[in-house]
Amino acid sequence: MLLFCPNCSNTLSVTTNHAAGGNCFTCRTCPYQKPLDDGIYYERHYMPKKKRLDGDILGGADAWKNVDRTPIRCKNDRCGSNEAYFRQVQIRSADEPMTTFYKCCRCGTDWREN
C-alpha cells in the first residue's frame, strides 16, 4: 500500500522517529511526518460503471438524422408500430456481418440485430 504526502503528493516512506520514540511516515521531499501511533483505516467504494448505450457510442441523437425507414415491428409490446429507422454499422471484424441498429419511429425504442 502506498501513501502520499498531502503537501507535495510524493510517496511516503516508513522511518524511525527517535524524538517521538516510534515509526512514522516521512516525505523525502518536504518536512511532512505522520506518526504511526494512530490506526490507519481505508474504505474502498466501487461504483459500477454505467453501461454506455450504442447511440452514445455511435453518435447519439445526431446519428439518427437522415436515416432510412424500414417496415419492421417495434420491440416495445405497448407501441405496436410497424416502422422503424435503421442504419448498419460494421462494429466487428470485416468477415462478420454488419450490425443493424433500429429505432422506432413512434416511441423511440431502440434495438439492434446481429
TrEMBL record:
It is found in: Nucleus. Residues 70-112 form the TFIIS-type domain. It comes from the Eukaryota. Gene3D superfamilies: 2.20.25.10. Keywords: DNA-directed RNA polymerase, Metal-binding, Nucleus, Transcription, Zinc, Zinc-finger. Its main location: nucleus. A zinc finger (C4-type) spans 5-30. GO terms for cellular component: RNA polymerase III complex. The keyword Zinc applies. One of its GO terms (molecular function) is zinc ion binding. One of its GO terms (biological process) is termination of RNA polymerase III transcription. Zn(2+) 2 binds at C74, C79, C104, C107. Zn(2+) 1 binds at C5, C8, C27, C30. DNA-dependent RNA polymerase catalyzes the transcription of DNA into RNA using the four ribonucleoside triphosphates as substrates. Belongs to the archaeal rpoM/eukaryotic RPA12/RPB9/RPC11 RNA polymerase family. This is DNA-directed RNA polymerase subunit. It comes from Piedraia hortae CBS 480.64.
